[in-house]
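Both lines are quoted verbatim for reference:

——
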Amino acid sequence: MNFKIIIALIALTSMLSCKSTKVLSEADSETYFEVEVIQNGESISIQDQMVSLEKAPFKFQITFYQVDHVYVAPSWGKFYYDYPDSNNIFECDGANYDECRFFAGKTGAQASFNTGKELLVGDGSYQQVWFYDPEMDWHRFDKGVKVLDDKTIATMTVEHIYDCDGRDQQLPKNEYNYPIDQVNKEIYMVFATSDYNKETKLTAEVQREKFTIRFK
């Protein structure tokens, strides 16, 4: 798998930041997206920002209302997770990218249509953008995205872990790319979306969700 940061992907994420196409119906005015975790065909409750899963395949189900994308940071650490709720997680000082959280330059490439069924987990150097645009002939979700009048529902199946940190440390492949039944650490998940103001050229955070996945 190729994780190089590419100019085309940066352009894509910049384009997505400017789009807001959905009209609210079932969701309230502050809801841009919803996240569910599904395992064995059942929605697993998220309590106190914690979800408990078996070491078996599962899915993220994302429902979009006002947006068509969400930034995602799955991590072994808390670089994204502990970022203060009062701060804009999309704010980025161009002079110090290492301290930035969500910004286009950190986005890693994933297989189209989630063919690898991998969850990319890394430190503060990595993020993903999960999106769906009906005008594009590819996306990162599983095939079969549902587009309704007031929302879009997409799933991301996870059967393997791709440990970006382990890859960077040049560990053997079976130690950084392995089936979910071999996972032995919690995963900190952060999801967020933004609104880009063309006049001020500023990106504002409009919603953030986070929880820890703990494996039984």
Observations:
- The helical segments are 7-17, 164-168, 173-176.
- The chain has three helices and 13 strands.
